[in-house]
């Protein structure tokens, strides 16, 4: 799994209930607000905003909700201040973790993130302690029953993908950020539905987790971060084999 995000595959297996969807919409709304505030409300001239709108549409976010968030960012509906935060630390087993967030109160968020690390047997580290282990990549996932592997690989590699991995239920495609737009467009032109399409931080190498209890703690930690309102993304460099994952999920 070197060079891939094992968490992306695990998240796909988890059911998306209404409560999770509502939380996801709230997080995407923050992205829209920040993107519109930084670069304006026109997605044709604001690439970050366009990515956020695409993500909102993929999450079936209502059009009026999207527009309202953009107007909050441009100041048409009152000013809301969110700042980007990044926390780095370690999960049990020495697994590197990066927590990317948007908050309106750093003094609230930082101790809450520290508490989550500690509650699950991990520790918050200093700035820069693990981010050197990750590289920014385009990450796109496709269900394995959507298209034969060879057909998808041919399309993806032709469009600039660096690698593709079959993780069981999904194909995980990674690319250089510069190739992300072309890759997305190629999949769309070929009517290939995507599960995830985003710019992500991918570990250059992964660490195998062969202990069920350690795996349980890591997964609980990741889920706690995903459930936190201020957290946008969580990245980690673990690789949990399928048999251990099955036991840890019981």
UniProtKB/TrEMBL annotation:
Keywords: Cytoplasm, DNA-binding, Transcription, Transcription regulation
Main localization (coarse): cytoplasm
Keyword Transcription regulation: yes
Residue ranges occupied by any TACO1/YebC-like second and third domain in the UniProt entry: 82-238
Superkingdom in the source lineage: Bacteria
Transcription recorded as keyword: yes
Pfam family, one: TACO1_YebC_N
Any GO BP: regulation of DNA-templated transcription
Domain TACO1/YebC-like N-terminal: 5-76
Subcellular location: Cytoplasm
Family recorded in the similarity comment: Belongs to the TACO1 family.
Protein's UniProt name: Probable transcriptional regulatory protein STSP2_00810
Organism lineage: Bacteria, Pseudomonadati, Planctomycetota, Phycisphaerae, Sedimentisphaerales
